[in-house]
Design a protein that fits this description.
206 residues; Thrombin, subunit H; six-stranded antiparallel barrel; 3 helices
Length: 206
């Protein structure tokens, strides 16, 4: 699909793993998700995160922000903030970043028990130039690797999706984009997401 093509509904013959939109105007249930995604730049790395509550907390990938002396967060509206890592888990590849802002554009975390093999999923992210990316695919396996619950998809691995939300067509978060091996940016490799079950346990841990 060319970058100028419009989003088509999932029953319009789209291929799994196909990028379905690079502009801001996307299928209505995903619109709220799109405006909740942020771009994160940390040292030489760039990826994504998404708002998880009203007080400016952002879920992202540990690989993206680990040991970075400074974290720049750019929101959908173009506002730029200095972010601070307030919690991290290298084993799960999860990090929680705080920015000094309040927002109503945060995402609903779903129920891992409702996710099943064969269901559609959408990976959201932003490219380095700030363009929105939505990629459609299918959940091909539910796995546990090194003690972490993962969702495997037929969506190609893409470094620009790292830390972005994986959602249903209704916009509910079911996972967060990750890779199982940091060097495996292979366009033919399956995509992985840390299950929302792991994400909720991480965010709400005491």
């Amino acid at each position: 699909m060319n970058s100028g093509d419009r989003f088509r509904s999932p029953d319009a013959g789209m291929r799994a793993g196909q990028e379905v939109e690079t502009a801001a105007a996307i299928l209505l249930p995903l619109e709220r998700v799109n405006i909740s995604v942020v771009t994160i730049e940390a040292a030489e790395k760039a990826g994504n995160g998404f708002m998880v509550d009203a007080v400016g907390r952002i879920a992202t990938s540990y690989r993206l922000v680990e040991a970075a002396p400074r974290i720049k967060v750019t929101t959908f509206s173009g506002d730029i903030f200095l972010g601070k890592v307030i919690r991290q888990d290298a084993n799960r590849d999860l990090a929680l970043v705080q920015i000094p802002a309040r927002t109503s554009n945060y995402l609903t975390l779903g129920d891992a028990g409702s996710v099943d093999v064969g269901e559609e999923a959408y990976v959201l992210g932003k490219s380095r130039n700030g363009a929105s990316k939505v990629t459609r695919g299918l959940i091909t396996a539910l796995r546990r690797m090194h003690g972490t619950a993962l969702i495997q998809m037929d969506i190609p691995t893409d470094p620009e999706n790292l830390g972005g939300p994986v959602v249903t067509a209704q916009g509910t978060v079911v996972g967060i984009s990750t890779v199982t091996v940091e060097e495996s940016w292979d366009s033919d490799a399956p995509g992985f997401a840390v299950s929302v079950h792991e994400l909720k346990a991480f965010i709400y841990a005491r």
